[in-house]
Design a protein that fits this description.
By secondary structure, the chain is mainly alpha-helical. Among the domains are: 39-188; 195-259. The chain is built from 11 helices and 4 strands; from the N terminus they run H-H-H-H-H-H-H-H-H-H-H-E-E-E-E. Helix 7 (135-150) packs antiparallel against helix 8 and helix 9 (195-211) runs antiparallel to helix 10 (218-232). The longest helix is centred in the first third of the chain and has 43 residues, at 15-57.
């Protein structure tokens, strides 16, 4: 024991930094515990709102209080319950009308979900909507599977009263689960990622705007598309449908730019000006009327229209034109005799 006490006597001052380190570790542990507890309470609250909204959609009354958020989420389902008329027969028009309404609501929720599933920009902005590890997203996917399984083949299908009620409740659960999951995803955004991962997501957002920008060159869009895939690798798993939609957008922009370049009007061809002022092209004259032609043979090339000038002797003489026959030296000018 003497060496131990000797050590304490020589290094007694180490107790202060050790206490500081222990205090920081304890405070970090306490903050983590509070965060986990708060998250657990949020999940429990969301589950309670979901159950209360489901109970309200089914028309049950009970001691469970419905919060304003849950009431707003259950509003579409409540509207279906309010508009529903008593069931008469499986083949009646009332049942067909209810099925059409349920089909419309079912397709509307599916369309809203596909916007998060196929739009890469929304996937980056709200990654929780495509993350099945999130409890609310998993609950929504289960409700979707149940509703899809209970959906009849068409609005004219013959259903019993129990089957119609079961499908109506499944659609209501589907709507409520999607609304709750959407609100939770918009609240979380990218808070579940680290700082470095958030920077990668921001970079992917900027590159995505370049990949679908019509003003960018095809090479820039292709490079931006590849960079987006690289930045999202390991962070967000894109579905095959989202990749196909993104590739279609990128290729559409490239095709549009190439078509615009191909459809540009060609530069107008400039015709060479005539060497003699005032001389215009005319149809090929006959051999008999062309000066310098011998034997009535046709000229090999069209001749310009003769231009009359005033002769010093008082007569009108044609403008001198270059001779183009083979028996005349090139460049020699032939002056025809004035007409009497």
């Amino acid at each position: 024991m003497e060496p131990f006490f000797a050590f304490l006597g020589g290094y007694w001052w180490l107790i202060f930094p050790v206490m500081g380190v222990m205090a920081s570790i304890g405070s970090a542990w306490e903050r983590g515990a509070r965060r986990r507890h708060r998250r657990r309470l949020e999940v429990l609250k969301a589950k309670a709102e979901l159950k209360s909204a489901q109970a309200a959609a089914r028309g049950r009354t009970g001691p469970v209080a419905i919060t304003p958020a849950a009431a707003s989420a259950a509003a579409p389902a409540a509207s279906f319950m309010a508009d529903a008329t008593p069931w008469k027969t499986p083949a009646s028009g009332t049942g067909a009308t209810q099925l059409e309404r349920l089909f419309t609501a079912h397709d509307d929720v599916t369309r809203r979900w596909l916007e998060y599933e196929l739009d890469v920009a929304k996937i980056i902005a709200f990654p929780a909507m495509s993350d099945g590890r999130q409890p609310l997203t998993a609950a929504f996917l289960r409700a979707k599977r149940i509703a899809d399984g209970l959906r009849p083949a068409s609005a004219k299908a013959r259903l019993t009263r129990e089957q119609l009620a079961e499908y109506r409740n499944a659609v209501a659960d589907f709507e409520v689960a999607f609304d709750v999951a959407e609100r939770d995803a918009r609240r979380l955004r990218d808070s579940s990622f680290t700082d470095g991962e958030r920077k990668r997501l921001d970079t992917a957002k900027q590159l995505l705007t370049v990949a679908i920008d019509e003003a960018a060159t095809p090479a820039e869009r292709q490079i931006a598309y590849r960079r987006v895939r690289e930045e999202l690798d390991g962070l967000i798993l894109l579905s095959d449908g989202a990749i196909e939609v993104l590739e279609a957008k990128v290729m559409l922009e490239i095709t549009t730019g190439a078509a615009a370049q191909a459809g540009a009007p060609a530069s107008p061809t400039v015709k060479p000006a005539s060497s003699s002022p005032g001389v215009s092209a005319a149809p090929r004259p006959s051999a008999a009327g062309a000066p310098g032609a011998a034997g009535g043979a046709p000229l090999p090339q069209p001749q310009p229209m003769p231009r009359t000038v005033k002769d010093p002797k008082g007569g009108a003489a044609p403008w001198p034109v270059p001779a183009r026959s083979t028996d005349t030296t090139p460049g020699r000018v032939v002056h025809p005799k004035p007409h009497s």
